[in-house]
Amino acid sequence: xxxxxxxxxxxxxxxxxxxxxxxxxxxxxxxxxxxxxxxxxxxxxxxxxxxxxxxxxxxxxxxxxxxxxxxxxxxxxxxxxxxxxxxxxxxxxxxxxxxxxxxxxxxxxxxxxxxxxxxxxxxxxxxxxxxxxxxxxxxxxxxxxxxxxxxxxxxxxxxxxxxxxxxxxxxxxxxxxxxxxxxxxxxxxxxxxxxxxxxxxxxxxxxxxxxxxxxxxxxxxxxxxxxxxxxxxxxxxxxxxxxxxxxxxxxxxxxxxxxxxxxxxxxxxxxxxxxxxxxxxxxxxxxxxxxxxxxxxxxxxxxxxxxxxxxxxxxxxxxxxxxxxxxxxxxxxxxxxxxxxxxxxxxxxxxxxxxxxxxxxxxxxxxxx
Length: 369
Prior knowledge:
It is a single chain. The protein has helices at residues 59-62, 65-73, 98-101, 105-121, 154-168, 185-200, 226-238, 247-260, 271-284, 309-318, 323-330, 334-341; strands at 50-54, 78-84, 125-132, 172-175, 218-223, 301-304, 343-351. It is of the alpha/beta class and 369 residues long. The chain has two domains: 20-224 and 344-351, Rossmann fold (3-Layer(aba) Sandwich), CATH 3.40.50; 226-296, no CATH class. A seven-stranded mixed beta sheet has the order 3-2-1-4-5-7-6, sandwiched between helices. The chain is globular, with a radius of gyration of 20 Å. The protein starts with 49 loop residues before the first strand and ends in an 18-residue tail after the last strand. Mean pLDDT is 82; it is low at 1-24, 28-46 and 286-290.
């Protein structure tokens, strides 16, 4: 299902959105849960806005789709920055001929992004496109192109983001960790410009022609809970469900590690056992953490988005070409689907005039603001 593309937005400014009536309905969701709270009952300060810096169309859905929908329901201004057009993504939409669709993948993924923006924002999500080309994975031929995000002038890219920050004036920003969460060049660059712009937007001596300086209070990194993900893979394996990517081999390593620790039956609900096993597997892979996300103990912010599962599900389903990333998740039994999508995880990396504490725990990114 595709949304009708909007009129072209210019540069780093907000993309113009069509009216709701002009866009077709997004895919029908399977999730029909009653919200646990409404915006009026959330008990949170509504003054602060949210700005997210993502690399590709579809990145906004899985790790932050619930946060976006919840923040808008709470009456906050939300701005989504998408750095690239996603031209190097795979094509898994069964209704498309990959050879025919490849030359126009940027346009297709823009339409998918517009669909997602509509679902999550209900006309209130501000979309900004930085306009760079997808770099592809490290070491691929596309990564050597002069026009890709990985080769972009970072001062110029940071300036584009500073302009958006000074216009939107958010209280909180969200992007990735220094490895882009999984090593993708575009995610790494999104992190670079987000952290640099967080500082620069507040400095009147930097980019003085790009608006009035603004201090963003907090900067968060998205996180994938290592123990929760391992538990999900174990439960999927127990039920005979196909595991995503190459996780079958990794799960075998986890089971071997569990046996070495004396866990004859690794229970998906035993967080301590999962922690020990995940650490053992990560140490054996040479790059600790790269395949295992963030340890549960290091995650300071856990945001309950269970009231917005329907929107998050529909947002993910908008990105039909990228079903290799989401398809396995959307097709699983509803109890597992709800468990996988109900909480979004973040690490507080910067806090204006304060040093983030490793022991700090919160259930809202706007806590203490």
